[in-house]
Amino acid sequence: MSGFLVKPELPYCKGCGHHLIVRNTVKALEALGASPLDVVLVTDIGCHGIVDGNFATHTVHGLHGRSVALAAGIAMGLPPEKKVIVYIGDGGATIGLQHILEAARMNVDLTVVVHNNMLYGMTGGQPSGLTPTGFRTVLTPQGYPLPHHDLPRLVRDAGAPYAARVVGLGDFSDVLRQALEVEGFALVEVLEICVSYGVKMNPDLRLKELAQETGYEPGVWTGARPAFRPSRRETASLLEMPAVPRQYSSPLEGRMALILAGSAGEGVQQAAELLAQAAMMAGLHATKKGSYPVTVGVGFSTAEIVLSRDPIFYHGVPQPDAVVVTSADGLANQRERIRRMTGGVLWLDASLPRPETGAEVRVADFRGRAGARNAALYALLTVLRETGVVPPEAFLEAVRESPIGKHVDLSGW
Ligand code: SF4
Which of 177, 179, 244, 382 is surrounded by the most beta carbons within 10 Å? Predict the structure, then answer.
């Protein structure tokens, strides 16, 4: 038994071309002298993907069509001696075509093996974007009417240094080996016919003939390009968050959850983010979630802010300690939550009717004092002044230092 396979019996239908792809992949890896633990196999949804359990390599099972995006992330975080291989079907390649083209355009160092059996096998034999003209499927019994995508050509046009198409018969391990040796993006399309659906619907077709008749030209196309390989330092710097300097302190023990509800276009989300930043400047942990309609410029805008002395592992707010409402849109959006409050404080703009609630209600003229555009900022400053949970000076400093700082007149606040 090969060192790459922990189970030699593959899980496919008898006669399925996937068997040969696995055997040829193993042969190519062995020819390269690779070790199973230097290989990451990323599979997609489809019959090909159930092979994960057979491989002794690292394996990752992706969502339908997304395996190339997943593999690109893996490849960019690994040193070049590791091999990242994607197994994907023609259906997955159709769904995730943009991921394939982007990985080719960036020349990410991975090898994509497309199991093109001309249809979606696992889901019942429907046609994909790689189904050739005239091929009969359960949905096109008279023959598929459209031309197929030419994947090797598409990835070459996108900049891939290696693309190949092989008829999936016999030994094609050399092509896979070449692809695996490429430092950069390589794609090998393997032509097959699904014996369960394709052969039944097209009993007279032979794979070799199909390749000729449909313009599925076998070949290898190469062109040198340096692989896109960000250094570890670059990757780390992309993920790094700038540290917030701690200059203030907070008396908060435990956790406080606050809802800020207002109107779109009135700076609600930014005000909430600045509160979170001020809280971090005072040594607290903070989370902020925004909620607003898809048409972001009209209707309500609500933010949920959690402040805590300890790290926050749950940022939901089933029962807020405070709700701050600055407009009629915000009140309409939060009315039910406010009605259910049995404690805590509701800060309400003076222009609004008093809603039904068990919370203590405090009324202030946020809009009149700061204008609609800055009502959310002013309301949070009011809350901080009344509770002291975060020093108001920290919040004012966060506002001043932010991109909106020079547009907000804080004098008199
Ligand atoms: S259904 Fe088709 S693609 Fe799936 S294992 Fe069987 S022959 Fe292969």
Answer: 179
Q: What is the DSSP string of 186-214?
A: EEEEEE---TTTHHHH-TT--HHHHHHHT
Centre of ligand 1 to C-alpha 104, Å, is: 28
Residue 163 lies in a domain: yes
Q: Is residue 6 part of a domain?
A: no
Identify which of 2, 187, 219, 162 has the alpha carbon closest to the alpha carbon of residue 87.
Answer: 187
Q: What's the whole-number mean pLDDT along residues 54-71?
A: 97
Domain-located, residue 413: no
Q: Quick one: 188 and 282 in the same domain? A: no
Render pLDDT for 279-291 as a digit per residue (tens, 0 to 9).
999 999 999 999 9
Total domains present in the chain = 2
377 — pLDDT class (breaks 50, 70, 90): very high
Looking at residue 20, its pLDDT comes to: 98
The answer to whether the CB of 45 is under 6 A from ligand 1 is no
On whether residue 211 sits in a domain, the answer given is yes
Residue labelled with tokens 């400093």: 397
CB of 51 sitting under 6 A from ligand 1: no
CB 137 within 8 A of CB 119: yes
235-249 residues labelled b (16+ CB within 10 A) or e (exposed) = eeeeeeeeebeeebe
Which token pair is 408?
């907000």
List of E strands, 37-196: 39-43, 58-61, 83-89, 111-116, 119-120, 126-127, 162-167, 186-191
Q: Does the beta carbon of 18 sit less than 6 angstroms from any atom of ligand 1?
A: yes
Q: Do 157 and 271 lie in a common domain?
A: no
* CATH number of the domain to which 203 belongs: 3.40.50.970
**301 and 213, same structural domain?**
no
CA of residue 145 to ligand 1 center, whole Å: 23
- For residue 47 and ligand 1, the question of a CB distance below 6 A is answered with yes
Ligand 1 mutation pick, 192, 196, 201, 202, max ligand atoms within 8 A of CB? 196
For the chain, first and last CA: distance in Å? Answer: 77
Range of the domain at 48: 18-234
- Whole-model pTM: value is 0.68
**CB-ligand 1 contact for 118 (6 Å cutoff):** no
Tell me if 286 sits within 8 A of 297, measured CB to CB.
Answer: no
